[in-house]
Amino acid sequence: MPFVAAHPRDRLILALDVATVAEAERLIAELRGTVGVWKIGYRLVFAGGLALAERLVAEGEKVFLDVKLLDIDNTVAEGIASILATGVDWVTLHAYPKAMRAAVAAKAAMPAARTRLLGVTVLTSMDDADLAAAGYTGRVDDLVLARARDAVAAGMDGIVCSAAEAARLRAAVGPDLVLVTPGVRPAGSPAGDQKRVTTPGEAIRAGADLVVVGRPILAAPDRRAAAVAIVADLAEACEKR
């Protein structure tokens, strides 16, 4: 089923890439109402972020748990089962076929679970040279497409990909697979350590459903204004898509 957003802000995922739960809580209090989804990744997970995720779920907030699981089938399935019990809205795992099939099977065994499974195709910090250095012989866009098709075959809810690949992927996999795009930067923002970037509006027009933004909001002098501007860009793009 295609992703439907009740409000344009529901398409904005804020990466809470901070060192402590206290700092994350201050950001949430500051930005609540302007951001649709809170992303909790490795840095915060290992600093008490899982308890924060459960509190946010209890408060009715949407949570994106970015843990990028990859392990043997049984371990992935057990990890997914534990995550589903938290009630978070999204969880990521690397888009390897066996891992995705194990995750989907674990979710099928818990039919009441609402968490959606996302396969991470190729990290947006990587380009063709990085793939070659890691032992891959193909191009990034071809590997992303192959992993997107694997995600469809496995029964995943969506994938994480660069907006640079979104249009090609949308045409290849159809409307039902949710496309989440990190590496998003508003016009004029520095790319940082990302190599495949685009603006929020461009990502939506290319076929993305949700965008992940971190530093362009977190480092802004007026964070609420930065978030509001991004949501306005998303809303305009949705109207024109």
Automatic annotation (TrEMBL):
Binding sites annotated in the UniProt record for substrate: 17, 39, 66-75, 124, 185, 194, 214-215
Record field: catalytic activity: orotidine 5'-phosphate + H(+) = UMP + CO2
MF terms (GO), sorted A to Z: orotidine-5'-phosphate decarboxylase activity
InterPro entries documented for this protein: Aldolase_TIM (IPR013785), OMPdecase (IPR014732), OMPdecase_AS (IPR018089), OMPdecase_bac (IPR047596), OMPdeCOase_dom (IPR001754), RibuloseP-bd_barrel (IPR011060)
A Gene Ontology biological process term: 'de novo' UMP biosynthetic process
HAMAP family assigned to the protein according to its UniProt record, in alphabetical order: OMPdecase_type1_B (MF_01200_B)
Known partners and oligomeric status: Homodimer.
Protein name, as recorded: Orotidine 5'-phosphate decarboxylase
Annotated source species: Siculibacillus lacustris
